[in-house]
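Progress note, sequence design subtask.
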């Protein structure tokens, strides 16, 4: 039973770790396309039209993997966690039902934007990509709301193992709905922007001698830095709200995130280090006095509950402290990198970035995606041992079927093949359509043709 639980969690965790890459970019890239369209309509600088065109082609390839991997995740929910899905079917089916319409909106307007861009007005192009963005963001919010429900369940009662007093809308608008919805959207916008920054910086290093291509990628980089910087700051502010939600609704998760064992006011914030259960401390950490209490309740004398207030079997895995710190550290780095880049370019009026900056920009995209992975692992692992907080344990919802190890390796093979296919298709397409060709084509025909 324990082995099946571990394999089931590993299989579903691997699926989500794979899917979240494409789902996140599926939300973040449309925002970049929208801003490129808006800048093109405002400035008539055709470089932005080329950006919108090329990013749309990349997005279409990514969606080709996001859709099947999301379908796999949905099937695995039913196969691996039948106990949980029984409750969801009775209480929390609304997000899954509404998400179908969100996906329909995204797919419909994506088709219009790709295949009819040269036959519709500039205003309708902007409307189309706006609805692509709305549909993508709505899909992410609706599916993530199921996760929010797991951490702050509401809208039903569990009596003798039976679901009673069901209120679907109360379950939908559970206490952490708005904070979780905000976090998934702003973090996706941040990640999409920094992925563009990474690609642009890499190409700037490669194409330094080609002034035309270099200038194009520099515009893309500055646009990505602006949007990424804004949304990295918003992600941090939303993270503060998330911490306060944990303090109120999942106190042992906050305690594990900070390695806090004893309940106390004026609680310190532990940065870095690792949690040592034997000594009940965070080894090698830098402690900032009183800050955890302030972050938890906007007051230095806020009482923060420690892990020792809860039964040992309720404790999340203590390594979540490391995940939480890595996520925060990356977010902080991205905020300061954006600020430094703008100061260097706009305030100090430096035309070229130092090589150190360029490599930092190249790292920004992978690091932002890594922070998304860390954040999701922290969010789900930090809720353990519960699949529905204080109502159903993960071990109570897992399937009783065997042969899960075989399924794990088969799905792992599928993800490896899909990953390789994405890389090969992206390389093939953009090698056949170099950016200089697109720039020359825009200059010659003056069009914004997406359908070629």
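Output:
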């Amino acid at each position: 039973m324990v082995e099946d639980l571990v394999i089931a969690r590993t299989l579903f965790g691997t699926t989500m770790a794979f899917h979240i890459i494409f789902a996140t970019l599926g939300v973040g890239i449309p925002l970049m396309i929208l801003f490129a369209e808006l800048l093109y309509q405002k400035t008539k600088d055709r470089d932005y039209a080329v950006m919108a065109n090329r990013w749309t082609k990349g997005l279409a390839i990514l969606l080709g993997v996001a859709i099947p991997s999301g379908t796999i995740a949905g099937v695995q929910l039913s196969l691996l966690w039948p106990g949980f899905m029984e409750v969801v079917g009775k209480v929390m089916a609304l997000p899954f039902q509404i998400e179908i319409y969100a996906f329909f909106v995204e797919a419909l307007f994506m088709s219009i934007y790709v295949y009819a861009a040269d036959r519709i007005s500039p205003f309708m192009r902007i409307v189309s990509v706006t609805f692509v963005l709305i549909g993508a963001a709505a899909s992410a919010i609706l599916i993530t709301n199921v996760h929010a429900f797991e951490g702050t369940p509401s809208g039903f009662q569990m009596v003798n193992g039976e679901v009673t007093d069901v209120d679907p809308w109360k379950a939908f608008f559970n206490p952490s709905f708005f904070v979780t919805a905000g976090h998934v959207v702003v973090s996706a916008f941040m990640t999409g922007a920094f992925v563009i920054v990474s690609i642009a910086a890499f190409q700037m290093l490669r194409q330094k001698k080609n002034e035309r291509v270099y200038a194009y990628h520099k515009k893309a980089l500055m646009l990505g830095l602006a949007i990424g910087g804004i949304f990295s700051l918003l992600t941090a502010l939303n993270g503060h709200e998330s911490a306060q939600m944990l303090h109120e609704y999942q106190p042992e998760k906050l305690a594990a995130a900070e390695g806090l064992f004893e309940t106390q006011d004026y609680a310190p914030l532990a940065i870095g280090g690792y949690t040592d259960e034997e000594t009940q401390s965070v080894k090698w950490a830098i402690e900032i006095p009183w800050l955890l209490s302030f972050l938890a309740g906007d007051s230095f004398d806020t009482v923060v509950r420690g892990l020792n207030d809860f039964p040992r079997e309720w404790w999340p895995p203590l390594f979540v402290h490391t995940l939480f710190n890595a996520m925060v550290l990356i977010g902080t780095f991205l905020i300061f990198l954006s600020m430094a880049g703008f100061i260097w370019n706009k305030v100090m009026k430096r035309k070229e970035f130092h090589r150190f900056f360029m490599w930092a920009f190249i790292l920004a995209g992978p690091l932002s995606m890594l922070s998304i992975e860390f954040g999701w692992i922290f969010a789900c692992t930090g809720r353990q041992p519960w699949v529905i907080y204080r109502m159903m344990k993960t071990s109570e919802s897992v399937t009783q079927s065997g042969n899960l190890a075989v399924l794990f390796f088969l799905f792992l093979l599928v993800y490896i093949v899909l990953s390789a296919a994405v890389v090969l298709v992206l390389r093939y397409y953009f090698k056949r359509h170099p950016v200089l060709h697109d720039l020359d084509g825009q200059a010659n025909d003056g069009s914004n043709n997406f359908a070629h």
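The first strand starts at residue 157 and ends at 159. Work on this subtask will continue into the next period as scheduled.
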